[in-house]
Write the structure tokens for this entry.
Amino acid sequence: MVRKIRKAAVIGSGVMGGGIAALLASAGVKTVLLDIVPFDLTDDEKKNPVARNRIVKAGLDTVLMTRPALLMQPKDADLITIGNLEDDFQQLAECDWIVEVVVENLKIKQALLKRIEAVRKAGAIVSSNTSGIPLRSMSEGLGTEFKQHFLGTHFFNPVRYMKLLEIIPGEETLPEILSFMADFGERMLGKGIVWAKDTPNFVGNRIGVHGMMKAIQLMVEEGLSIPEVDALFGPAMGRPKTAMFKTADLVGLDTMNHVAQNTYELIPDDVARDDFLPPAFIQKMIDAKMLGKKTKVGFYKTDLTPEWKKIRKVINPATLTHEEYGKPDLPCLAAAKQAKTLPEKIKAIVYGDDKGARFAWKALASNLIYSANRIPEIADTLVEIDNAMKWGYNFEMGPFETWDAIGVKTAVQKMEADGLKVPENVKNMLAAGNETFYKLQNGKPTYYDFATGTYQPVRLSPHMISLSVLKAENKTVKTCPSASLVDLGDDVFCLEFHSKMNAINGEIVDFMAEAMDYVNDFGAGLVIGNQAGGMPGAFCAGGDLAYMAGLAKEGKYADIDAFLKKGQMGMQKVRYSHFPVVAAPYGLALGGGCEVCLGAADRIVAHSELYMGLVEIGVGLLPGGGGCLNLWKKMTADIPEPVTDVDLAKFFIPTFMNIAMARVSTSAADARAAGFLGPKDRIVFNRDHQIGEAKKDVLKMVDEGYAPPVKRPIRVFGPAGQGMVNAELFNMQSAKFVSEYDVFLAKRIAFVVSGGEVRENSMIDEEVILNLEREAFIDFWKQEKTVARVEHMLTTGKPLRN
């Protein structure tokens, strides 16, 4: 039997349950979402199905309204059906996977699982999203067949965006069930799998909450302010911008406190148990309903003056009043700002000698020691702990990677000098002559295994291709500071951008031409993709705006035109090359990044989290690298050839609106709905698999006998399209939805996309639109308002409406 998840059930429609249901639906799985019948129904309401489903309906409504969106696209909600645990429980008999996400109460969970056992079909998988209750306690008294299909699946919130999925085997879970769920979670749901043991709060929260609680305790002891702590444990340490206290506000102080207190109660034998006790001021904040985002006041709050000016304040733990604050001024932070790499930044902070450095060292050292002491209690390897913190907390480095970055031997010497007890497993590693937790062996990443005292290979998914590993194996065939060409094997190569935000500059344009020549001579096909970090990360955030702004400032419009023409011709060369090309966009694919996908690739293999759009109008420009041409081609590519009487207005309007409104997709599914992806393009949920999947598509096209597309004239709408747009723009300007300059730009964009001064429904060469793009692009640069928009974006990072 080939196991499949055709239908799933989620029991519990709160934040986590709703998020899991949304993810399953977005992955194409029919999902039943159930919750309890309200306790306070009147006699009449008890007979009313709508009233009986009030709680679950509210949960689904929350899913639909939440921003950032939990669903990949609104219509995914069609795959979710709702019900209650009294009237609709029998629906569970149809489900292949049932996940419970009910209140953290052992008796309630035990009673629910007993009911599920009675209705589930043989072989159906049942899992719990608990974070604190032992699986063995929940499944006590249940049958062997049930226990063989029971496990923990601990998602992190928000479910769509957080990569971590902790899988916790039960005492009797079948190995094939564990491997199936790991594969389903990884391939179908896009998660990074961490194997955890059935211990309190598993891996991510055990380590993460320890780090946060210990840091708060030390903050009070050392006399630091909350903004100082957040500055120290933010991007300078490879942590998210929300750092510690802003993250706590997002999670909710009550939730954070509950997890900490729950852990404390469940780990009576942990020598660091007291590290989980929150300082007294936290409980006082909770009592005062200062819970964070959910109550609009937590560690931080924002006040508005009568003039609508925002005043940002932070709580003073001593007085429990919120006060205005400025940017922290600590010497170690200044030193970190000057450092170029993340390891250098972390060293500058923890090995400094000011109060901030002393605090940061104590907090970090405590968490490093705690992490090492939890192996093998909570996980068998240090890789699981590092991955949990990277995927569940968005750290750039996990604890052991951080330890490597600051020098294991140096850090241990400092710990011992400070009277800290270094874990025996770490001391044994050093004593054996091993000074790092990770190292490359024959180009392959390995980790130090405490159990065997040897370096073991880091397990990588067979679906994954790692560009960093390939480059360590000397598979880079050509490179420059902004891009590289990497051999993926099987005569397929990857064109990787690695400029700032992977933005397209002159160096990349020149390198693309060289890469094309190389692949033409020595390769079978090309993938355009990269594996830059960040959440959501940037496939390519556009063109080098600062470079063009410099040329415009000096009046070198001919140089801008030459740069654009070279880019356009390079894109055309890729598009009509004699080998298949697949683009692998993820995260930000804006402006030039979107143009690369639309213009150069035969197919697109997109990551599900794709924010794609032609956004140039936001800085007073239009797509000048073939974006206008190729979006129009993408929109009209699948009109069957025999269909000659086509209403081009139905294709022109959405094409124009995408460009003129700078529409950015909210997911890859939304990009498909907008027309940026076509029916031949694919969406993958796991970004780690993306390059490998793109390579598969290249090889498939090669195997099918790839022939380059034939360059033919394209049909355009002509003046009729311009007239339609002009009429609508007049209405929008009259209603003050757009500025006069927006109208000026939009009219020119309509002129370009419609083919210019040609007859309606004319056939024209592609070069006509490319020339119109460049002419408009140059003309826009000559406008003062465009220059002002560009300068504002470069200075503030925000668009200017003028």
DSSP finds 32 helices and 26 strands in the chain.
